[in-house]
Fold:
Amino acid sequence: MTLRNSNQPFLALATLALVSGASVVLTCANGWTLWYGDAQAHVNIARRVIDSRTPGIYQIGTVWLPLPHALMLLFVWNDWLWRTGLAGAIPAALSFIAAGGFLFATVRRIFDSAAAAWASLAVFAMNPNLLYLQATPMTEPISLAAMAGLLYTTVRFGESPSFRWAAAAGLVGALGSLTRYEGWFVLPFAALFILWKGGSRRFAKALLFFAIAGAGPLFWLAFNWYFWGNALEFYNGPWSARAIYARGLRAGLPRYPGDHDWAVAMLYVRSAAVALAGLTPFLLAIPGLLVALWRRALWPLLFLALTPLFYIWSLHAGSVPIYIPSLWPHSYYNTRYPIAVLLFLGFAAGATVLLAPRRFRPLAALAVALLAVTPWLLHRHPEDWICWKESEVNSTSRRAWTAQAATVLEQDYHGGGIFADFGDLTGIFARAGIPLRETFHEGNVPAWDGAVARPDLMLFEKWAVGIEGDTVYETIFRASPRYELVRAINVPGAPTVYIWRRN
Structure:
């Protein structure tokens, strides 16, 4: 198997499409697509750009980067795709296919071995945690596509240091920087690689890369400054991870594991990575890592290690937490974050195939694939997939009160508007089939600010839905007795959800 066999990439893409499509169908058929709270939020953010009392790009909001929501706009206009979550799952699935395709092409070029490429693809693509994520409206698969694409284009630049490949790498880098913040972290490293491998006019090529790739972060800074008056709103605004953590500390909550402790941060990321990938791919990657070093494939190893390192740094900085059941506080939260380790493991495990004589490499690739997949075949129940389990555990109460509240509104709501915070509650309206333009939320400024400040003068909605303690809850009690309680929904493990109707 050599590079001359041009059918291999198409067969790899077809295989990825088949696996991805089957996973999307299975996930949707079982009703799992929107179990992640973030998944529900992503499709609703995209939907409100076109379905709102104040539609427009402003509705994308801050903190979360805009590209995933922009891709969802291609599908979220369809009510069925929005309500089922497929409007967000389709871009994620297409991104999974692209990520696997880029990984396959990169391994094939670097090692001149289709067998190694197939082994890499098996380790990456046959992981049930990734297959579940790519069947939901989550942003990680889109980020993986950008990372794998940036690796491929920089590898091609290293082979042929042209302005064309520098520009291609810059474009993919810009897309990654508009998807997740680890996309910002890798850009300086990619620029240094282009500067190192650029040959003649290396500075001009590196400058071209950085000008194109840097347009992503610059756009986001400008977007935040234009709409919120603060270029760093996503970083230090009231809904940033930093501000949420600070409020939690002031309320007496414990510090995140790994906060200013490198050893603990490494422990949590490593433990989550093993739970995500399984132990076998790590064992397969060890000899492959040595082979890759011997073959001087240094750049792919360094580049693919950057995202896991980014999360170790993030935990140390107290920016985000990762909770897994085997470590304190023995719960599930952000377990998916180190999922990019699958690109690293896939690349290294593929290199393991090169230990076999060339004629036996197809058999070695099959052995690597079987060894990587067998543990998941033995633990094929979703309960054993940490991403699925996190979404199931953390959504149990939310799914219960969403269903009950949606039933009430389906039966009794006949127009007049709904006063509600935009967040988890928005899933109620999606399930009930109520357009978001029927709702009145904090994205509808300045009218929202007026209604909250003076509900006696500026709140006219016939209905209101709130959670105990939120802005709507507080506002309705100040507007009482203009609203009567229709239903109080009590679900174990969740605050009470209230539905009011105007007298």
